[in-house]
């Protein structure tokens, strides 16, 4: 008798749908017979400046040692991060992207008997890692597209092991200031771990802006996750990290793959931390691009969710998939977010000024085309 191998997968995994990444430029070029150079991708919150020259140089130097295993403890990178944030190197856990760290956290601290709390419209990786380990996902309805922190605190039960908070959140761009995060942490029992995912924090510079690292000394149940993929411009290399108590970091270190961050990634991330100029330019380009897009949306009469990230979710109406397709036909890749339960929105990443302009022009045409098609 034929075995249904799908039925052998653990229950949570059977119910999973795979993470939907942004469409690669090469794929759209193949599908439409377009020149890849004519396509713009504003779909994966990538840094439009291109990588830091210092990062490229460091990765190139590391090429001569491709035959060697990486430093499994990431000594130099941890030293740099430790100095930058005034934390111990023993508080840092490195990951193959911060997604890797998020998954390791879930595997270390939750199992089939646990509940994991996160918000509606929160980053897609939280439900994936929760279901993959057979834990119960508790999705708390959002408030004005953002996390309802009071409701999330109220959703914690005796079975809750983990709470994921994306701040700013992707794909909504919503954020809570440091005071709100602190008040939230005050309500969470100390035996429940809070993962504060700050993938976009480098874009923020205001005084009240959230800084999870500053809260670590008060909250031993806090794990702060950050990444080199966004403002630091190293998405291809996959490097992220968490900062937590040494005890939690020690646990995470037992479960992570021994060489989860490769040598090129370690070298480039270590080098880019010295490139403050690059970070500054990333921030400035993002602030300007965000203004440019939000102003254009205002002029077009489109609603959007005010964003603190390097992307913005714009409401284009019930024909959002048609608008997406009409943008693709013009060589502009953005991100549909129906999978997040936001069927009327598209998420667009901030590009260079000319890219943003090209997107706005294409969007105006796409709205007409999609409206007529319906
Ligand atoms: C992009 C993003 C990450 C980072 O993912 P990496 O694996 O580090 O590339 C983490 N959390 C959120 C909310 C993100 O949007």
Automatic annotation (TrEMBL):
Nucleotide-binding recorded as keyword: no
UniProt pathway: Amino-acid biosynthesis; L-histidine biosynthesis; L-histidine from 5-phospho-alpha-D-ribose 1-diphosphate: step 7/9
Domain Aminotransferase class I/classII large: 39-363
The EC number(s) this enzyme carries: 2.6.1.9
Pfam families: Aminotran_1_2 (PF00155)
Stored InterPro entries: Aminotrans_II_pyridoxalP_BS (IPR001917), Aminotransferase_I/II_large (IPR004839), HisP_aminotrans (IPR005861), HistidinolP_aminotransfase (IPR050106)
Modified residues (N6-(pyridoxal phosphate)lysine): 230
Keywords assigned: Amino-acid biosynthesis, Aminotransferase, Histidine biosynthesis, Pyridoxal phosphate, Transferase
Needed cofactors: pyridoxal 5'-phosphate
Domain of life: Bacteria
Molecular function terms, GO-annotated: histidinol-phosphate transaminase activity
Catalytic activity: L-histidinol phosphate + 2-oxoglutarate = 3-(imidazol-4-yl)-2-oxopropyl phosphate + L-glutamate
HAMAP family tied to this protein: HisC_aminotrans_2
Subunit-level organization: Homodimer.
Protein family membership: Belongs to the class-II pyridoxal-phosphate-dependent aminotransferase family. Histidinol-phosphate aminotransferase subfamily.
Protein name: Histidinol-phosphate aminotransferase
């Amino acid at each position: 008798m034929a075995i249904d191998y799908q039925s052998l997968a653990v229950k949570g995994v059977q119910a999973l749908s795979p993470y939907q990444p942004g469409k690669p430029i090469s794929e759209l070029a193949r599908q439409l017979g377009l020149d890849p150079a004519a396509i713009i991708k504003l779909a994966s919150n990538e840094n439009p400046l291109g990588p830091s020259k210092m990062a490229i140089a460091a990765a190139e130097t590391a090429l001569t040692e491709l035959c060697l295993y990486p430093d499994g403890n990431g000594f130099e990178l941890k030293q740099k991060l430790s100095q930058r944030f005034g934390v111990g190197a023993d508080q840092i856990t490195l990951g193959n992207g911060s997604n890797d760290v998020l998954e390791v956290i879930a595997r270390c601290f939750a199992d089939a008997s646990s509940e994991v709390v996160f918000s509606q419209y929160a980053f897609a990786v939280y439900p994936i890692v929760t279901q993959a380990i057979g834990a119960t996902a508790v999705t708390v309805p959002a408030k004005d597209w953002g996390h309802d922190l009071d409701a999330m605190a109220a959703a914690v039960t005796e079975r809750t092991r983990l709470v994921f908070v994306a701040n700013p959140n992707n794909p909504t761009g919503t954020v809570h200031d440091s005071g709100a995060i602190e008040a939230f942490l005050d309500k969470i029992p100390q035996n429940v771990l809070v993962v504060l995912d700050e993938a976009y924090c480098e874009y923020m510079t205001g005084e009240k802006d959230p800084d999870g690292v500053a809260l670590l000394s008060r909250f031993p149940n806090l794990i702060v996750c950050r990444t080199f993929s966004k403002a630091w411009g190293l998405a291809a290399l996959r490097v992220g990290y968490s900062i937590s108590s040494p005890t939690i970091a020690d646990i995470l270190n037992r479960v992570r793959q021994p060489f989860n961050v490769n040598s090129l990634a370690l070298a480039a991330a270590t080098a880019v931390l010295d490139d403050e100029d690059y970070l500054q330019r990333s921030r400035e380009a993002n602030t300007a691009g965000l203004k440019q897009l939000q102003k254009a949306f205002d002029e077009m009469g489109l609603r959007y969710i005010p964003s603190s990230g390097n992307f913005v979710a714009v409401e284009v109406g019930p024909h959002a998939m048609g608008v997406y397709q009409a943008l693709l036909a013009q060589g502009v890749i953005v991100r549909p977010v129906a999978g997040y339960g936001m069927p009327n929105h598209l998420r667009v990443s901030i590009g260079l000024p000319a890219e943003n302009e090209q997107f706005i022009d294409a969007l105006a045409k796409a709205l007409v085309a999609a409206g007529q098609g319906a």
